[in-house]
Fold each of these.
Amino acid sequence: LAAPAPPAVAEQDAAERFRRDHPGLALPAVVVVVPAYEEAGTVGAVVAAVPPAMAGMETAVLVVDDGSRDATGERAAAAGALVCRLPVNSGQGAALRTGYRVAVDHGARFLATLDADGQWAAADLPRLVEVVSSGQADLVSGTRRAALQRDPERWTVRGAGVVVFAGLIRLLTGARVTDPANGLRVMTAEVVAGVELEQPQFQAAELLVSTVCRGFRYAEVPVSHARRSAGTSKKGGSLSYGWRFSRALVGTWWRERRRSR
Ligand SMILES: Nc1nc2c(ncn2[C@@H]2O[C@H](COP(=O)(O)OP(=O)(O)OP(=O)(O)O)[C@@H](O)[C@H]2O)c(=O)[nH]1
Ligand SMILES: [Mg+2]
């Protein structure tokens, strides 16, 4: 019996299999990468809601099916997405990393991220793409900060975590980040090539900190956010979420600090 492949090998295999299955595929300038783990209930609608063009550029959707045992991959394909499949569940960070690699390999210039659970609105993405494609920033993130301030009912433990982690990133890096766990992001292919992404699960903090520490320009755009309408969070309760998020954040800052010395 073969030993299970280490994660990096599984990701490389998935990217190579995608290439074999799509010979000569040239992706458009904008690719929306959707990491999806057992999101059969929502992924179809999420894919269908992505605008076919953003900032005047054609857009493709690439769903990375992260070893789901449900119909996530089939639903995504039926809704019009390209699907890259990881053979085993590898984590949101690993799924995103695989998606970036596949997208850039096939010619994407701007990479967007969108969750498969329907909590973020694809309709907000064109405004983010606009900021990056017009050269105002290299990485742009959505932010819920204005909505949080308007509506006290949104003050959950997670909401408080957003403010605390934003403050911590500001303290450590000086960057004005107000919503480090936002699921909507757009960046250039140069950012993907220029940062280091090791986190298998909590990539958002690592991407942000690595991007600003390596001199790329960062911006934010206000976006909306909804509660989950189907499925369950795969990331555990708020306390463990917060602990693992802060570990990724501080760990990345420390790594980048050592690297720049
Ligand atoms: N958590 C988790 N998500 C994954 C994984 N692989 C892919 N994903 C996808 O990553 C996206 C974000 O995961 P969620 O569990 O919704 O995490 P979240 O939005 O930070 O947390 P919630 O607010 O609880 O939904 C979803 O589209 C997941 O399907 C995985 O191994 N774990
Ligand atoms: Mg979610």
Amino acid sequence: MTARCPCCRARLRGAVQCPRCRADLSALFKVWQAASFYLAKAIQDWQAGRYEQSLVALEQSMKLHKTELALSFRDFLVHQQCQAVLALLADKQLWKARQQLYRGRRLLPCSELLQQLQLFIDDLLFQETDDKSGHLSSIPL
Ligand SMILES: [Zn+2]
């Protein structure tokens, strides 16, 4: 991704002062540096199996600067959550799948894919519960 001046959209090529409009961008660069620091931390935490810390760092990074790399990393995390849930579904472990999804959605609440998956599982669970007892009151969260 090429950084652009927020004032005039000129390409910056690493310059602290915009080559076109002369805006001082040093403060902005500091924010972007902090964002990439947190993104690197998120990726390292993920690799080390510290998933919760990873998501916290990713959120921090994206608050400062939503880069394509950060967005891709978030997509990757959503994809991983989906795979874990689908593996449980394939194994007919509906409750475990729902719990896994619940954790995923808590950490990635904006994911439409996870949201749809939850509706699907709830529907499956509803059918199953409906067949057996006819009510849903026994479903824990
Ligand atoms: Zn400019």
